[in-house]
Amino acid sequence: MSGVSLRNVSKSYGDVTVIPDLSLDIAEGEFVVFVGPSGCGKSTTLRMIAGLEKVTSGQIVIGDRDVTWVKPKERDIAMVFQSYALYPHMNVAENMSFALRLAKRPKAEIEERLRVAADMLELTPYLDRKPKDLSGGQRQRVAMGRSIVRDAYVFLFDEPLSNLDAKLRSSMRTELALLHKKLDRTMVYVTHDQIEAMTMADRIVIMKDGHIQQVGSPKDVYNTPRNTFVATFMGSPSMTLIPAELSDDGGTTFVSGDGFRLPVPDRLKEAVRNSARRQVTLGLRPEHFAAEARTNNFAPVDLTVKVSEYVGSSQYLAAQLGPHAITAAVEVGPEADLLTDGTYHFDTSRMYLFDTQTEQAL
Amino acid sequence: MTAELPAPVAKPRFESGFLTPYAFITPALLVMLGGLLYPVIMAFYLSFYDWEIGRDLEDAPFVGMTNFARMMTDPQVWEVLWVTIRFGFWTITIEMTLGVALALLLEKPIRGASVFRTIFILPLMVSPVVVGLIWRYLFDARIGWINYYLGAWFGIEPQVWLGDAQLAFFAIVFTDIWQWTPFIFIIVIAGLQALPSEVVEASTIDGANWYQQIFLVKLPMIKSILVIALLMRLIDVFRGMEVMLIMTGGGPGRSTELLSLHIYNRAFETQQLGYASAISVLLIAIVFGISTLILTMANPMKSRADV
After folding, report:
1. Of A124, B33, B40, B241, which sits 20 to 30 A from A73 (CA to CA)?
2. Does ipTM come in above 0.90?
3. pLDDT of residue A330
4. Which domains does chain B have, with CATH numbers?
C-alpha cells in the first residue's frame, strides 16, 4: 500500500530505549495525529519519518519506497516545526522558495508555486518582509507556506500551533483542516493537545512510553477507549476513575462503591459476565452528568460540591462522590446560579468499566 | 453608586530611583574619561608641540601643524602603514578562514571535541610578551626548533628567519595566526552552538547539502558575530606591538614594524614625543574610520534580533 508505513521501528539512545517496537500504517491522503504526554516518543517517531533521527531497527516506507536509510531531502517530505524554524536572514519569498531554489527548479515554476502558496495563505502582501517583522501567526503561515510550495508527498507537523495564543490556535486548526482538504496529501501531525487531535484527525494515534495505546478515529477513541490511559487522556475535563465492585441483584448487575450504586448498561453486560474479577475501575466522563434525569438511563448520585466553575453553557464541578473526588460538567440554563451540593444524575449508558489490574476496558 | 475617593495625590516630580541608573554608570564613565578620553585628548594636544622627555610640557615649543605636515610626506610613516595593512590582510584573512573552518569542524559533539577545543584556545591564554619570547627562540637561526626540525625531517637548510625581511614578515604573520585563530574559533563556535537546531534541520529537509547549509544558512545567521570578530581583530592589528617588539624589534629594516610599534620607536627611541603623538592621531583616525565603516555596513547590534 502507498502512504507511510512504520514496521517494527525502534529507537534507542545508548541504553535508553525511547521506542521499543512500533508498527503503523498510514493511508495515502490521511490526516493522522500522534498525541500523548511529553516524552511519549511521538516527536521521535515523527523525526524518524522525516529522517532527522535514524532508526535503531525496523523499516520506514513512504509511498511504496523503503526510505529507512534515505536522507531527509530525498524522502519527498515537508516539515513544519514548533518554533517555525524560518531563516531569519531571508524574506518571506526567499524562505518559501528556498527548497525549490536549492533543487534548481526553473524560475517561472518557482514564481508560480510561490504565488499560489502565498495566495492560499494570504501572505502576498508580506513577501518582502523578514520573519522578525511578522507576527506569530504570520510566521506560522510562512512555515506552512514553505512546506506547501514543496508539494511533498507527506507533510509532517511537529506541534506547529503550540507557540500561538488560544484564539489564533483555534483558527489555525480550521485552516489546517481546510488545507488538508485542498492539498489532499498525507499529513502526520504531532501534538500534546488532545483537542487538536480530536478536531483535525482522520485517525488519532495515542502514545505513552513509546508504545501505541490505541489507534482510531476521534469518535472511536472517545467512545470506546481501550484502556484507562486513553480514557483519561482524551476528553476535557478528563474522565474520573473510581474503584468499584460488581454485584448481581435480582438479575440486574450493579457497579457499586462507597457512596454510589449504578446499574451496568446493556452495552457492557456481556463483558461483565465474562470478567473473572469483581473488582473493577469505573470511569465517569464529566459531561455525562446532568442536573435532571433526561432518560431512564439516568441514575441519581449525591454530590458534595467543593468548587463550581462557570464556563458559560455548563458549570464544571469539583465534587465528592462519597469519598471520591470527581469532576462533573453540568449543563445549565442562563438563569442558573452556581451549583451546590445535591442530587445529580448520571447517564449510566455512557459509563466505562476497566479491569483494575490490567487497566484494559471491559 | 460612586464611593467617596480620597483627595488625589499629586504626581511625583521625579519618580523615586530616578538617579539610580546614573549612579551605576558613573564609575564606568569616570574610568573611561580618565583612562581613555584623557590620553586621547593629550595625544591630540601634544601633536601640536615639539616635546622631549625630561623637559617640562610648558616649555615645549608650539609647532602648529608642522608635525602633521611632516607626517604626510614622511616615507617611513607610509612604509609602516603599508606593512600594517599587509600584516592585517594576511593575518585576518587566514585567521577568519581557519577559525571558522575549525569551528565548523568541531561544532558537532564528536568524541574528543572538548579536548580539541581546550587545546585550541591555549594560545589565547599566553601573554603577548611571552608569545614573542617563545617564537623568537623557536625561529632562532642557530638554536631554534624550527630550523632543527626542518633540517632533521625535511632536509631544509637553516634559514635566518628573523634576519631576512620576507622571512621575518612571514614569521610575525605566522605567530599572530597561531595566537589569534583560537579567538575567532571560540567566538564562532559559541555562535554556531547558539543557532536554533530546528532552523538547521529545516534546511536539511529543504535539501541543503553540507556546504549550502554552511554558506546559505549557518554563516549568514552568525553574520553579526563574524562582524564583531573581524572588527576586534582589525583594531588589534593597529594596536598590537609587543610580539614584534620582542621578536624583531620591527626589523630587519622596517619589514615588521607595524604602525603602533613605529609610534613607540619614535616616542621612546628617538624622543620625538610630539611627532609620535601626531602619528597616534592618525592611528586613532584610521581605526575610528574602519570601525564606523564596518558598523554602518553591517550593524551587529541591530541584527542581533535576528538570531
Report:
1. A124
2. no
3. 92
4. 46-51+59-297 (1.10.3720.10)
